[in-house]
Amino acid sequence: RITYVNGDYLPEAEAKVSIFDRGFLMADGVYEVTTVVGGKLIDFAGHMARLRRSLGELRMDAPTSEDDLLAIHRELVRRNALEEGLIYLQVTRGAADRDFAFPPAGTKPSLVLFTQAGPVLERESVRRGIKVATVPDLRWARRDIKTVQLLAPSLAKMEAKAKGADDAWMVGEDGFVTEGSSNNAYIVAGGKVVTRHLSNAILHGITRASVVRLAAETGMNVEERPFTVAEAKAADEAFITSASAFVTPVVSIDGVALGDGSPGPIAKRMREVYVAESL
Ligand code: PDD
Hints:
Number of domains: 2
Bound molecules: N-(5'-phosphopyridoxyl)-D-alanine
Strand content: 25-35%
Distance between the termini: 25 Å
CATH architecture of the largest domain: Alpha-Beta Barrel
Protein name: Probable branched-chain-amino-acid aminotransferase
Pfam families: Aminotran_4 (PF01063)
CATH topology of the largest domain: D-amino Acid Aminotransferase, Chain A, domain 2
Mean pLDDT: 97
InterPro entries: Aminotrans_IV (IPR001544), Aminotrans_IV_CS (IPR018300), Aminotransferase-like (IPR036038), BCAT-like_C (IPR043132), BCAT-like_N (IPR043131), Class-IV_PLP-Dep_Aminotrnsfr (IPR050571)
GO molecular function: branched-chain-amino-acid transaminase activity
Radius of gyration: 19 Å
Cofactor: pyridoxal 5'-phosphate
């Protein structure tokens, strides 16, 4: 694999950053994941807009222009002959002696990217649907910023797996579902698609924005509001969205099967509509 590290295209064995990088010491960094299908970047403008926002919220300098970032993504697709998979991009505040205060102005942000080849369109998880388990949401109060602080969702996913599920749905102290470990969460009940409204409690998914818009355009009734675990377990169907999962059906919550326990018709339709628009 060829990676990108601060201006250089390097084989992964040579891709290295400083031990003083604030991403490593303090999780002082943000990231984006863009999906590639047929060599084409999906929703790239949306990911760049969110990156700009994450950087702004953390008062972090942009490493380079968005035109450059697009050129780097395209070059990695080319060098790795990436047909289907993901491109991971991470920006950190750079390397500086360890201090809680930000480093001096002029410290160069670090920029790294790498690709991960793998199926996006045809996945077992989509055919079967996934099982989710609910776990407490232990993350900080600014989940709208896409930081590299991913320990809480990593633990959430492991807890869900220990319970025999494929992924976690995280639940706030108020008893309402926030989102999946790395995806947004939806239920379908009484013919309505319900997903939590945008706030600092969840990541503003780029796929979510497309799916909410497409649902409305195709005549679905969408309600953006929080829902409880009990409401979710009683729903007709459920699904998740993310750059890598697109729309993936959820077939059970904490062992309670939804509908007949197979992927629901609205989840399948939303996936078809999203795929048709994106490719
Ligand atoms: N995760 N919520 C969380 C907590 C996420 O980490 C993600 C993305 C999403 C979905 O956002 P989008 O539709 O823009 O991918 C929601 C990425 C894919 C990841 O961490 O790998």
